[in-house]
């Protein structure tokens, strides 16, 4: 959907920067002025603060954009190329929630469909910013920081605060830009919702109990973090990345051919098995998961599935093992996955319940993906 200058007035949203800021709470306005590093205005009333922000925004957007990564810069360039208004068709709900927090990107609607827009008075200054070579260099650096951090957390689950800095710096220099790194990662957490930080450290969004992971990792004091290559981390740092270890294709084939699952549904089930294994689940738990989606006609069916699932789990990198797969530690750790007992457990027909995929809309109605809402 393209909106030209003649149709811009028909878009429902904000007509000016002042209107956009006026819709925000006082706390949001103070967050924006902190993001822009505007000081000595904390005592202003709302109307005064809005006026001050409007007057100073054009000179501060350079700093705001310097916190972006390449995805957000691409979006900004797309907005500028389309006179400040684009369709939100391919934009996640989490991103839409983030935009007003910037103070210069807002959401609205056009012909009943969601859009993203920028106040027209900011278009000239933003047009200059996206041509600034210094800003472009920082955006490139930020992108690497975010991907490496996200990649490390994807493989390790949870990492203590200081240890994360140490690990990231092995692949991409942080010092003397220590504060810049924290600012960039903090913004990325708000934008992507794929990492979070608490008293235990930094965690991947799927981690439900950081303390358990750290306790398990600490119990293996003689085991260092798996030495991933920079290329591996940059790949794992991509949004929605799922590593499919050895054995994935065999399980996928079994699900689609033997159990006649649609490929999309089979991939969702495969990825769920991988994620649960990363969390440290044993084969019996994985098999219980599969029982909720499949019907077994005989014990032979159970054994065939077991013969595929166990090797997959043995080659899956686990958070408890600091990024190692069980097969990589077999000599040192003697960790083995035990075969399932020859018992036919309770099965639930796929037709008797509705499956919600990780990337499907959450049934609670939030508009977010299931994996980033009730599925987390």
UniProtKB/TrEMBL annotation:
This is SecC motif containing protein. SUPFAM superfamilies: Sec-C motif (SSF103642). It holds the Pfam family SEC-C. It comes from the Bacteria.
């Amino acid at each position: 959907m393209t909106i030209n200058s003649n149709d811009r007035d028909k878009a429902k949203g904000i007509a000016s920067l002042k209107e956009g800021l006026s819709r925000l709470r006082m706390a949001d306005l103070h967050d924006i002025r902190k993001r822009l590093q505007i000081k000595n205005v904390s005592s202003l009333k709302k109307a005064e603060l809005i006026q001050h922000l409007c007057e100073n925004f054009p000179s501060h957007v350079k700093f705001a954009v310097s916190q972006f990564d390449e995805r957000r810069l691409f979006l900004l360039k797309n907005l500028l190329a389309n006179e400040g208004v684009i369709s939100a068709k391919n934009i996640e709900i989490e991103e839409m929630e983030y935009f007003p927090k910037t103070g210069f990107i807002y959401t609205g609607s056009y012909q009943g469909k969601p859009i993203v827009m920028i106040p027209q008075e900011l278009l000239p200054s933003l047009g200059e910013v996206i041509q600034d070579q210094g800003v472009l260099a920082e955006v490139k650096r930020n992108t690497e920081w975010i991907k490496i951090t996200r990649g490390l957390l994807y493989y390790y689950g949870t990492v203590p605060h200081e240890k994360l800095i140490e690990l990231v710096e092995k692949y991409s220099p942080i010092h003397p830009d220590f504060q810049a790194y924290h600012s960039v990662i903090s913004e990325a957490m708000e934008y992507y919702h794929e990492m979070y930080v608490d008293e235990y450290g930094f965690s991947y969004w799927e981690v439900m109990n950081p303390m358990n992971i750290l306790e398990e990792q600490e119990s293996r004091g003689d085991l260092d973090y798996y030495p991933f290559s920079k290329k591996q981390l940059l790949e794992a740092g991509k949004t929605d990345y799922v590593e499919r270890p050895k054995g994935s294709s065999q399980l996928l084939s079994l699900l689609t051919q033997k159990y006649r699952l649609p490929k999309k549904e089979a991939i969702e089930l495969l990825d769920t098995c991988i994620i649960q294994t990363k969390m440290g689940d044993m084969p019996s738990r994985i098999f219980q998961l599969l029982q909720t989606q499949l019907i077994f006609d005989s014990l032979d069916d159970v054994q065939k599935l077991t013969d595929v699932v166990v090797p997959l789990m043995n080659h899956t990198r686990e958070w408890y093992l600091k990024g190692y797969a069980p097969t990589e530690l077999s000599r040192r750790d003697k960790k083995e996955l035990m075969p399932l007992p020859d018992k036919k457990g309770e099965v639930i027909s796929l037709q008797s319940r509705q499956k919600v995929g990780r990337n499907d809309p959450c049934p609670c109605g939030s508009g977010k993906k299931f994996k980033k809402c009730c599925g987390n």
